[in-house]
Structures are given as C-alpha cells and as structure tokens.
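Bug: token stream looks shifted between consecutive jobs. Job 1:
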Amino acid sequence: MTPGRQDNGRFAKGNPGGPGRKPRPVEEGYLDLFREGVPPARAKRIIEKAASQAEHGDAKAREWLFNYLAGKPADKIQVSGAGGSAFRVVIDIADTGAGDQGLPYGAEGDPEE
C-alpha cells in the first residue's frame, strides 16, 4: 500500500493529495506580464470604476464584480426521463473471466442480488 492512501487507492482522510502541478513557465510569463501591466494601484482604480458603474445600473459591471466577489453561479442540470419522470440506469458488466478485475471498487457479485 502507498503511504497516505487507503487499501482501495483513495487518499486517506487528512491527506491533501500532494502539492499539485507547478505553474508552467509559459503561464508564469503571462502572469508576470499581467502583474506588470496592472499593478495593485491600477487594479484598485479598475475595481472602483466597475463598482461605480454597477451602482449606476451597468449590468455587465455588476456581473463582473459579483463573479469575482461571490463566485460565478453553478449551472443547474436537471436529469430526468420523458415528461420529467425519473429514469433508471442499468449497467451491464460482461464476465471477462478476469475475476473481479472488471468490477468497480466495492462492487461484489451480481448487481441483481
């Protein structure tokens, strides 16, 4: 078993999952250009202007501000069958003769049992 993982391969509770990917040099270059072109004092003026425009009814400025302040709203996806009724998903797993290797984690035996 790998340290920091459960028997099924998932990260153990409290394990952050590693440091993640380091920024690519190209991305770092673009971020550096952005920081040079829009230093904090200029960014503050832009934000203040957008806030003023939003107060005066500018819907785009309002949307831009609140997407950053509160986060963009999640898209809602409704999954239903014909006429809005619930539908049933059936997954048929073929017997490959490979033992339990073809089954997902935690799956045992016949799904109809």
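Job 2, same session, no restart:
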Amino acid sequence: MNKARLLRFIVLINVLIANLCIAIPSEATVKKQYLQNLLLNNNNNTYISLLLSDLLTIFRRQKVPAGGRGDICALAPQKLVEPGSSSSTKNNIPVEIWSLKPLFLWKIKQGTVKQIQLFKDGSNNDLWKGNGEIALGQTSIIYDGEPLQPGQLYHWRLHIPFPIEQPSFQIMEEKKRNEITNELKQIEARLNQQGASAETITLEKVDLFVKKNLWSDALREIFAVTNPSPEFKKIQQQLLSFEYCQTKD
C-alpha cells in the first residue's frame, strides 16, 4: 500500500471511529438497556444479582462522619459520606429523611443495646421506645408508632444501659417528600407492569434513594424486606459487615 492510499485509509478509519463514538451509547445506557431486557424476559434473579452487586460497591465506599459515640456507631438515621468529603465535618446539621417510619440501625463494639427512645424536638417526654427491651444482639429496629411529621426534627437515644444521644434527624418538608413519593409510585407501577419481583422493585427504590443521597431511606428499604431470599439476606449481612465508622481525629 503506497503512502497516499495509506493516508486515505487512516483518514477513513478515523472518520469511522468518530462516527462510532457518536453512535455507541454510554456504559450506563448499555447497562440500563441490558437490565430492562432482563426484566422483560423475566430474568429477575440475574437482574437482582446485578443490582445487589452495584449496591454493595456503593455502600462499601460510604462512611459515617466523625465516627460513633464511644462503642456505638449509628448507621441510620445518619449521614453517610465519601471518605475525605468536606460534608463529613458538618455533624451539627440533622440528616434529612423521607420515611415517616424510619429504620434505626447501629453497630456496637462491646455490649448490647437495651432500649431505644425517640423524642420530638423540644420535648423531654419520649414519643416512642420500641416494644420495650431490645433483644440480645439486635442491631436494628423500624419505628412502628404513629407516622412522624414532615418538617419535624427528632432526637433519639440508645441505652447500653446508660443513654447515649444519637445524631438528630428531620423528616423532609411535605412538598419535597410528595415529589419523591410520586417517583416511587411510578417505579412500582412500571415494574409491576413488567412482572418484576418484590425484591427487584425494592432495589429500584433503593437506587432512587441512593441517587438522591438519602442513605438512611435506602437502608430502610433494604432491611424492611420481609422473608428475604437467601441472596438478599446475604446482602443485608454484608452491608452490616462493612466498616462505616471513621475514627475521630
């Protein structure tokens, strides 16, 4: 091949590459299309496996800012941030959550939590304290009282057996909360129409919460699953095994 033909060939290849780069969808788009095809073909198990894999990767990176309180580390309601993030220093700002019946999730190095108390801001009387004493080894509980109020600030304590104040949280304002509620309903309607399993729907909701940095709500969806499959249960256990809690400087 002479130089002129070689040059024309190189130009042609470059043009083709340029056109291909325009035509080829992004990795995220390809993955989304692949997942949608799995759903349409009722391959729920494969779909769930892929979503769970992504979920573990995301949560493995996250840390609780400024560590826990002594041997206790509250995971939800709590802020989870990337290590080194500047937001990790803003511990005085209450975490905002969507759920009116939040998950309380913690890790403890020594001992066991005996009781939980929830307080409305400005009140010394507990609003809720679970169903009495917490079972030995239990590290989570979902609030089962009257729905909490949008816009309201709450405080909570864990007793081991002495009370330890945990990070405050606030239910998001009603307008913002309703927008997310509508998005969740759309997800559920779309996936039900596609014949998705309950766990698949849960993971899609988790994905929405993660994209909005609502980590406490994402964790709630995961741990609120009743009768989880062995694969899903394994993920719950793996999420608890991660070392979220940074040590204080």
